[in-house]
Amino acid sequence: MFVAFLFLLTGNNYAQDQSNNSVNNQIWIDFNPSYKISDRLEYNGTIGTKDVYPHSWYKIYTKSDISLNLPKFIFKKLSSSEKVYAGIQMYYIFYSEQPNVFELSPYQGYSLKLPNREHLILQHKLELMERFQWALPVWSYSFGLKLSYEGIITWKLYGNIWKLAKGIDLSCSFKFWWNLIASNVYNNVVRIAPGIGYTINEKWKTAFLVGWDYTRDASIDSFNNNSMIYRFRLYYKIPQKNDKL
Which of 16, 38, 44, 211 has its C-alpha lying 20 to 30 A from 190's C-alpha? Predict the structure, then answer.
């Protein structure tokens, strides 16, 4: 019910005008290193690419953030974990027929895993992002501000559930954006992405997701974009000094 309510809020513009829709396929590839700084602090990073077919643009991007695990207070009697995080994202879009775009975006967020069990995790993420965009080479500037909620459910199949599925997990994410101030280029609205992951060992993990993404472009009146996304992700936990390589 909660997901349906969010979809109605974010999907209102989608239902109003579909007269100028674009449909495409996108391939996303990203590498995600992480490092446990201390018992409460952790670094997470991403570097990746996004390509669209039929080809009209190509994006490279990177993001880094530091998260702080919070002591249990509100949900101390439940199987849960909480953290706050802050970071910065940068990307560059190479367009085929219009000026390229560079964006610098600080963000801050709160994450709650409830429940946070051995085989089932439901993660809630609330995030605020400030978007600073420049169209090159003229350095035309625009600013955007967006709030997002993401729910991620993960079902881990390994262990006593199914021994043959050791290291495999199934997931599905639902992400909704509210563009408080719309920037000129690609304002996300909603994304749904089911996927499958495989934990190779304590340091390496892979995941493959297939999803649907809906965005709007404020630089063109009533322009909407529907995308099928095929995403490959690689995760790596950087060893600490006392870990075995």
Answer: 44
Alpha helix segments (H runs only) across the chain: 2-10, 12-16
Do 216 and 223 form a contact (C-beta atoms < 8 A)?
Answer: yes
Site of tokens 């995308």: 227
The pTM score is 0.86
Report the distance separating Cα 227 and Cα 43, nearest Å. 30
Domains of the chain: 2-237 (2.40.160)
Q: Which two tokens stand for residue 115?
A: 């429940």
